[in-house]
Amino acid sequence: MNMQEYIEEAEQVLLHTYNRYQVVFEKGDGVYLYDIEGKKYLDFVSGIAVFALGYQNREYNDALKAQIDKIIHTSNYYYNVPAIEAAKKLKEISGMDRVFFTNSGAEAIEGAIKAARKYAYLKDGSTDHEIIAMNHSFHGRTFGALSVTGNPHYREAFEPMIGNIRFADLNDFDSVLANVNKKTCAILFETVQGEGGIYPATEDFMKKVKALCEERDILLILDEIQCGMGRTGSMFAWQRFGVKPDIMTTAKALGCGVPVGAFLMTEKVGQHSLTAGDHGTTYGGNPLAGAAICKVLELFEKEHVLDNVREVSAYLEEQLDLLVKEYDVIELRRGAGLMQGLVCKEPVADIINKAMEKGLILINAGSNIIRFLPALIITRQHVDEMIAVLKECL
Length: 394
Ligand SMILES: *Cc1c(COP(=O)(O)O)cnc(C)c1O
What we know:
Elements: H1 3-13, E1 25-29, E2 32-35, E3 40-43, H2 46-49, H3 58-68, H4 81-94, E4 98-102, H5 105-124, E5 130-134, H6 143-147, H7 152-155, E6 165-168, H8 173-177, E7 184-190, E8 192-193, E9 199-200, H9 203-216, E10 219-223, E11 247-250, E12 261-265, H10 267-271, H11 287-302, H12 305-326, E13 330-336, E14 339-344, H13 349-357, E15 360-361, E16 363-364, E17 369-372, H14 380-393
Parallel strand pairs: 3-15, 5-6, 5-7, 7-10, 10-11
Antiparallel strand pairs: 1-2, 2-3, 4-12, 8-9, 11-12, 13-14, 14-17, 16-17
Bound molecules: pyridoxal-5'-phosphate.
The site of pyridoxal-5'-phosphate (PLP) has 14 residues, from helix 5.
């Protein structure tokens, strides 16, 4: 079958929940993807910030294969070494104390919400606690995650959501203050908003929210699912400002392709929230996921991934800023590290489709923003190659 035939078949059998690009990918190599007809694409999306190490990292593949030949699932009623090692490493790089492994980002958010509610419940026994989330946020598609997602368009048809969620504006501390009351148990936001349009939280905002949380024993929950794992040049985006959350979520690049997520908490929250019987998962933290996380974190160090992000992202910013100057249609650049957006004055779908035709993969964030989420191992040459193609499309 050719590509068009596969696409037609897909539309007969898959639930139509995505308006997909008209391409079927078959394999990847480094920062390039190949479709089933052999066409090569430079990938500046990396599966939405998942393939941080690029495709076909030899050591990563070998580690997974070795684990598959031992065991890939046991059940969380037993211990397994890869999960223990992965949790130790995560603790080390984040400074958090306790880890719960999930299979996805949305599940990590669900767990974080449960931990926060339980923490508050143990303090006063009441069951009407509130969470403050942000407008333009995105936290996933399950009900808890959807309830804290600050975009009515995602929620409307599925109401009612879980209750007691209030929305404030990222980087507007007064809007947070206006929503705080005695019932507030947590304040939740993405350190850099992804789907909502690549809005980085400012240092000032983060520090003020953190101080407020400490003063009132409210838990600060940071969603690092898209912006964490090295994407902004530090292992987690909050580390740039030293504003440590009480609970943190991670996923996407954590397994570099193996579906994993996690929520992590400080010892304080760990000791006073979820206990045996409160939460669980069949697959979360299975040996295959653990092996993936361990190898990913090992390779981050060995291949000096953070150094590369800092160096290449400075160059990417420079090159994108030149485009802002050169093209009227582009309003501004926004972002942090290798998580960048070009905000345009009109919808960007045509630009992205043209790029696709020319063998460059980009994605939008909202209708007017071109989003750049390349593998964290890209080089300046890849940036040059991307810019040259993008110019042809603008
Ligand atoms: C992708 C994403 C999620 C949801 O993760 P899934 O693995 O798709 O459930 C949550 N929060 C943020 C910031 C994300 O980018």
